């Protein structure tokens, strides 16, 4: 894919500049950087990045609050958390707020750059071990939903998916990548992407993380 429009949000100037340099050298366009959460939300609305690389800990507001602000201003933006902390609650809070992926700062540069590319394509990307944590939490929530329901309009309100869309959704819920799904079903990578995008549109969801939770709540990950 062509270069991704990226914004980097981190309160450590040397780290922020290093990440921006790596992205630029890899052919991506760094449209903005910021060291504060509130400023990041304001700047992102004008810079319109495809992906925001975001630290969880910022000096003014939390990374979770930044995600919420970004999603309100730019509903289609993808957020990749890049944090030194892999603390369970922080990871879950970020994903529930709308982060597409969560990578630890100990990741190798090549792993980070691959994560940015995959995040831009809408794929959830997690440091090894964190994906299982997120899926486990979604299964727990599906088994014990909060009072008031899961936010659906009621029984039978879900839009009808085609057999192929349901098949793709089932594999998404199992944690397979687009490439793996394409290989499993004998489809092209682009076709799988199209099925996922169509399903997101029908279900009025924003990303694969929300799609995975939807599928798990309906037992499609079995």
UniProtKB/TrEMBL annotation:
One of its GO terms (molecular function) is DNA binding. SMART domains: HTH_LUXR, REC. The keyword DNA-binding applies. Gene3D superfamilies: 3.40.50.2300. Keywords: DNA-binding, Phosphoprotein. The modification 4-aspartylphosphate is found at residue 55. InterPro entries: CheY-like_superfamily, NreC/VraR/RcsB-like_REC, Sig_transdc_resp-reg_C-effctor, Sig_transdc_resp-reg_receiver, Tscrpt_reg_LuxR_C, WalR-like. One of its GO terms (biological process) is phosphorelay signal transduction system. It comes from the Bacteria. Pfam families: GerE, Response_reg. Residues 154-219 form the HTH luxR-type domain. Residues 5-120 form the Response regulatory domain. The keyword DNA-binding applies. This is DNA-binding response regulator. It comes from Micromonospora wenchangensis.
